[in-house]
Design a protein that fits this description.
alpha/beta; pyruvate-formate lyase- activating enzyme; 7-stranded mixed β-sheet; globular
């Protein structure tokens, strides 16, 4: 069967959509290819126009859209309707975190035939086989569909998926040069956490074995021209033993491929040493807030553990980028100042300072909903404006004057502070200008792109 896998555009009111490596969709593609299906992929964030004609010409029997909560919903809806008109009997399937959290609302739309909750490889593959062979699909785990009446049916997902039983993602279907990072998912089979480091109400899934992750990295480097990898998910940092085994596997392979990962728990010095030896160049360190009171509210634990991990990483010349949110519900000015004081104590390291957004599927979203702090969209397509609406809302008790002055200083000094931090704590980094100029300029491009993203965020939030 011909199956199209589609990443809809995340563009919003003139702001271009960001290109995020489609690791989830490529994993679905790998499973479908193993079953003999013909696959084409389109990412409308890297190639917005020609891909639409390519999909129509491919004439798929199934079109699978990977949809998060955000502007991509409107684009996915428009493209789903367009394909329905252009291709007779095409079946539209939505996967990703939005249909996972809101399956019935998504299925209510005439242009959506099926949804998948959570990990989509097995349900989409089984659905394709059933449609191709004219068999009943109503018992497929994790599948949502429309019944003979107006009612919808949503089956619970399969909790026993073995990630090592899945084939490797179909990396050959993506042009890795078009993405700032190549993501490698370290856990499969759980429900989606719809925003980075938010407290998801779902299962994080099962870990891909460390030795297989190391082999996949070797494959990406040797056969796909990948120059660095971002290890997403909690498969490694959720289990320090797995992280150490992964590092040892990379060292055993002799692989010299830079990699990064998110860190949301304390790492000891031996783990940091192994990470550095195995090629880890930087981490995204989950901070959330520097306020002990607020960290207790959002379930982040002891701030001293963050500081210990930070210093252990810096000693090993692994660059920690702080992931910090502001404007949490109930955040006070002393809470906010405690976060700023933490950044100062750590000598102003690289930092992502982002406004809190209560994405669906997280505990904080449920809190905001219960406390009537957000307006819940009534239709599927109105979710496209949800993040922008939250950007305009104030969830905290921090004054607008303090926020504006802090953010203005942050934007103005971000690049200079990052250079200063690297000069003081990791001057060897600048040798890359000579020894690895391409890598240096790639990182410089990321820095400029991130700064432009900050400006864009300010414009949208007013």
């Amino acid at each position: 069967m011909r199956i199209a896998l589609i990443i809809p555009s995340r563009a919003y009111h003139g702001t271009p959509g960001y290109a995020d490596f489609p690791d989830e969709l490529l994993s679905v593609a790998g499973t479908l290819e193993r079953s003999g299906h013909q696959i084409t992929c389109a990412d409308y964030n890297v190639n917005p126009d020609p891909d639409h004609d390519k999909i129509a010409a491919f004439n798929p029997g199934i079109a699978v859209f990977y949809v998060g909560t955000g502007p991509e919903i409107a684009d996915a809806a428009a493209r789903s309707q367009s394909l329905k008109k252009a291709i007779v009997n095409v079946k539209i399937v939505w996967i990703g975190c939005h249909p996972t959290v809101f399956p019935n609302q998504t299925l209510h739309e005439e242009f959506v035939d099926f949804i998948v909750i959570g990990c989509a490889e097995k349900p989409v593959n089984e659905l394709a086989s059933c449609i191709e062979q004219g068999k009943d699909f109503s018992a497929i785990r994790g599948l949502g569909f429309k019944g003979t009446s107006a009612a919808t049916a949503v089956n619970p997902p399969d909790a026993n998926i073995d990630p090592d039983g899945l084939p490797d993602p179909a990396w050959h279907l993506a042009d890795v040069r078009r993405y700032p990072d190549v993501n490698l998912n370290t856990a499969r089979g759980g429900l989606y956490a719809c925003t980075f480091f938010s407290d998801s109400a779902g299962d994080a899934g099962k870990t891909v074995t460390p030795s297989r992750l190391a082999r996949q990295m070797q494959d990406l480097a040797r056969n796909h021209g990948v120059k660095s990898v971002y290890l997403s998910g909690v498969g490694l940092t959720g289990n320090p033993d797995n992280l150490r085994r992964f590092c040892q596997a990379l060292i055993g392979l002799g692989l010299k491929l830079p990699w990064r990962l998110p860190v949301s728990r304390e790492l000891d010095d031996e783990t940091a040493r192994l990470m550095a030896k195995a090629g880890c160049t930087s981490v995204l360190l989950d901070v959330g807030s520097g306020s002990p009171r607020l960290r207790d509210f959002i379930g982040k634990g002891d701030i001293s553990a963050v500081e210990r991990t930070f210093h252990r990483l810096v000693r090993r010349r692994i660059v920690p980028t702080l992931y910090v949110n502001y404007d949490y519900p109930g955040e006070t000015e002393p809470d906010f100042k405690a976060t700023l004081d933490l950044i100062r104590r750590l000598d102003y390291p690289p930092c992502l300072l982002l406004k809190f957004i209560p994405y669906p599927g997280t505990d904080l979203y449920e809190y905001c909903r219960r406390e009537s702090l957000i307006q819940i969209p009534e239709t599927l397509e109105s979710w496209s404006d949800f993040a922008a609406d939250c950007m305009r809302r104030s969830f905290s008790q921090v004054s607008r004057e303090l926020l504006n002055s802090t953010l203005a200083n942050y934007r103005k000094s971000y690049a200079a502070r990052r250079v200063r931090f690297m000069l003081r704590h990791n001057p060897v980094y600048f040798i890359s200008v000579i020894s690895r100029p391409r890598e240096f300029y790639r990182r410089l491009k990321e820095l400029v792109s991130y700064w432009l993203g900050i400006v864009s965020e300010k414009r949208k939030s007013g």
